[in-house]
């Protein structure tokens, strides 16, 4: 699982930061998932190492322009390029109507299937490897945060140990790799988990923007390996944050601390903290790290590989 930040500014783009978009690359599935799609996102993808042909799912947090104005352009380009099979789009009420109107008035016709899913809190997508859920945040309009959970996997299968036990190769190996219990022809009962290494704990990513501090974000981020959280304002500007229902650095850090996450990556910064101003972005990072030391600050095209956790012993949590 690899995260690429395509836009880390709030409201409007700057010379160094585009508006909101985060890509999640899943190499094992050759898939690319996108979270928000601000204006210019397709240009950011072209400037990155991502392959738009792998784009399969887009998750929209809310209907503000800096999170959706790039969506129609990206979808249209994918259609003209002809290299996308299908795209599922998830987001709040009104997203489907927005895309239909944009398509109608721009006379855009897609050459590939697009399906829009109106989300409600809870699980919104699941396959054999991942579960995606969403929850309400606290913003001026309905806004959702997302949580991607990778399912736990059985540990590495010890082929040499299986051979030493004279277990015949073939379909039985597949069953044992999955941790199943198998009865051999000679009557022996083999527990697959005894031939596998420690369980590989699935990774968890939470994406929370736009929002002021709220319990919804804490719940989505609980025990996450990575929390991507907006930090539009410095703590000094907390009154403005409450008025506009955005987060300060300290709100993001408190969310990470209470949720027990392993890494906080802040994004969605106000252009008011540009170099040379009284408060700069480096000051925002210091504020957050004072509360949650494992904090880093995103920048456009930053790539973060989500590390895998392993259970020390298969029965540790028992």
Automatic annotation (TrEMBL):
Residues 202-269 form the Metallo-beta-lactamase domain. The keyword Ribosomal protein does not apply. Zn(2+) 1 binds at residues 62, 64, 139, 210. Its EC number is 3.1.26.11. It catalyses: Endonucleolytic cleavage of RNA, removing extra 3' nucleotides from tRNA precursor, generating 3' termini of tRNAs. A 3'-hydroxy group is left at the tRNA terminus and a 5'-phosphoryl group is left at the trailer molecule. Keywords: Endonuclease, Hydrolase, Metal-binding, Nuclease, tRNA processing, Zinc. InterPro entries: Metallo-B-lactamas, RibonucZ/Hydroxyglut_hydro, RNase_Z/BN. Its cofactor is Zn(2+). GO terms for molecular function: 3'-tRNA processing endoribonuclease activity; identical protein binding; zinc ion binding. The active site is at residue 66. Zn(2+) 2 binds at residues 66-67, 210, 268. It is an enzyme of class 3 (hydrolase). Binds 2 Zn(2+) ions. Belongs to the RNase Z family. Homodimer. This is Ribonuclease Z. The lineage of its organism: Bacteria, Bacillati, Cyanobacteriota, Cyanophyceae, Nostocales. The gene is rnz.
